[in-house]
Write a structure and sequence with these properties.
This protein has helices at residues 2-17, 26-33, 74-85, 100-111, 121-125, 136-151, 227-232, 234-240, 243-254; strands at residues 56-62, 90-96, 128-134, 155-161, 173-174, 178-186, 198-199, 206-213, 274-275. It is of the alpha/beta class. It is globular.
Length: 276
Amino acid sequence: MRSAIFSFSLVLAAVFSGGNVIPAHSAALSRIAGPASREPGNVAASAESLKPGAQTIVIGFVGGFVRHDDPVHSGVQLAARLREDYPSGVYVNTFENHQGEQAHREVLRLLDTDHDGALSADEKHNARVVIYGHSWGGSETVALANQLNRDGIPVLLTIQVDSVAKPGEDDSVIPANVEQAINFYQSDGLLHGRPAIRAADPPRTRILGNFRQDYAAKPIRCDAYPWWDRIFMKSHIEIECDPRVWKQVESLIRTKLPPPTRVLSAPASSVRASAQ
């Protein structure tokens, strides 16, 4: 039903074209993510993430019919910042949500370090993959995780932002190969994200939380977005351009990365969110 509403909204947009975060329980997410900083000394990276020779692969999926390189969108901007900080040692790329198979092939190619056309047990075991996405991109995030699960490849983290299930996909159940998963969503308007995700195998996957955003009292300005998006998908777009949500997404991703090789002068401010 939500996919049908989303498709209808996009059709309307084509025809016409021719957030305040709830404060309760915010400390819980801050403890999970650690300080949201781009300074090397403040990035919370585990000892495993610093393992020599372990390249981390960060895959982002954009929503709707957004181009994979459209700089207006927060997921694309996030990828650009990570690429600036990690000119080597970390692979970062964004894909359109219908390019899941292309992203899958790229992950397999990157993990094949001996270039023999097949993944060994060690190459699979050493995989360090992070996947994030908004809207249909959130659905494709889970779809890619499922593909990697069938391949026997672990995933460090999945992040869904106002995830809308694509036809034939289930974005609510996180497969057992995923170590950690988190879900940000909003509940207003005709189009809104999935309110809860769960682990297929709870002992193997930690659900960090389902964090609801509310833009009724303090809406987010998304002036760079097309007017039809701001009208027909208002709250769904607000969470997509909410800097506080995306700084939290960035902070979570950076916990899986080593300190940046490029030192920046200004840390990102921390974000407050609430679990529900």
